[in-house]
Amino acid sequence: MTQAPTLTDGTVTIRAHRESDAQGSYEQCQDPLSQQWTTVPIPYSMDDARSFVGEFMPKGWADDSEWGFAVEVDGRYAGTISLRSEGNGRAEIAFGSHPWVRGTGAMERALRLLLEWGFAEQGLQTVIWRANVGNWASRKLAHRVGFSFDGTIRGWLPHRGELIDAWVGTLLHDDPREPRSQWLTVPVLEADGLRLRPWRDSDVPRIVEGCSDPETQRWLGQIPAPYGEADARDWLEQSTERLARGEAMNWAVVDPADEDTALGSVGWFNHTLGVECEVGYWTHPDARRRGVTTRAVAAVVGYAVEVLEVQRVTAFAAVDNVASCRVIEACGLSRYGVERLGAWVRAGRADMALYDVLAAEVRSSR
C-alpha cells in the first residue's frame, strides 16, 4: 500500500482525492469532450462522482494498482491524473481535465509532477500513453511532456461496447521531458485583401463542394471520386496529422468580411529544412477568376521564404492545366522543365510542368 503524497510546483498541486472533489468530478463528466474520449458512465450522477473520489481512487492506492491524484489549481479541483501500474517498472498514464482549466497549461504541469514522482519514487522505467485515435488534445499533451508517438494499434481500446483504434506512445526513465519534434501551429496570414486561417470542422461542406467540382476532380486525380463528407473529414484529420509531425501546413482562404466561407486551400509540404518546400492549392468554384488563388499562393511563397527560411520554393501542375500554370507564374515562379507523365489527373497520367523560385528572387521582387 502506497500513501498519496502532496506535490506542487507552486502553481499546480496534485494530491489525494477528497470528498469535496465529487462536485468537480461530476461537472467534468458532464462535459461532452470527457464523454467522447473517456469511458465515464453516461449518464454520470453525483453518486458516481462520490464513488469515484471516495472509493475507486483510494482503492487504487490501497492495492497499488493505480496511483491517482486530484489536480488542484488556486484551491479548485481541476481534474484527475494517474499512473496505472502494470508491474516490472511499467505503468500507463491517464488524465482528464475539468473544462475550466483547459488551455491554461495546468495539466501539463500536473503530468510533469506525476511523471517525476513515478520515475523517482516508484522506480518506473517505462510509462505508456494510449488514447482513442482522434483525441488530438491528449496526443498533444503527451507530446509536450516528451512521449514518443509510436503509431496506431488497431481495434485495441474498449469504448462503449466496441474496440476502437488506439494511438500509443512511450516515455522512458532517461528520456528528456520535452517534445521530440515540432508540432506546427497554423498562423493567420493577411494576403492582399484575403485572410489565410486554420481549417475548421465547420468548413466540411465547403471542402466537399470544392473537391467535388468537375475542374478540381479533373486536375487532382488523387482525390476520391465521388467526394463526400467522410472524405473531407479524413482530409482534415490528415492535415492535423501532418501538423503533429511537423511535415506540412494548410490554410483555408477566406474573405476577412466572411471568415466562415472558405474560398480554397493553400499550403506547403515536401519540406527539406533550410533547402526547399513545395506549395499546392485548390480553389472553390465561387472564387475562380478573382485573383484569390494567386494572392493566397503568393502569401504562402513569402511565408516559406521568410518563416521557413527555405532557399527554393517549387510548384507543379499538369501542362494542360492552363489556369493553374498561370497562377504559379503570376506568383513569380519560373518553369524549369517538364516531367513526362509526372502528373496524376482523373484521366490517368499527364505531363507535368515544373516550376521554382529562389528566395533571393522572391525578396528582390518585393
Automatic annotation (TrEMBL):
Q: What's the name of the protein?
A: N-acetyltransferase domain-containing protein
Residue limits of the N-acetyltransferase domain?
12-174, 194-361
Q: Report the transmembrane regions from the record.
A: none
- This chain's source organism reads Nocardioides koreensis
Q: What InterPro entries does the database record attribute to this sequence?
A: Acyl_CoA_acyltransferase (IPR016181), GNAT_dom (IPR000182), Ribosomal_N-acetyltransferase (IPR051908)
Q: Which Pfam families match?
A: Acetyltransf_3
SUPFAM superfamilies linked: Acyl-CoA N-acyltransferases (Nat) (SSF55729)
Source domain of life: Bacteria
Coiled-coil intervals in this record?
none
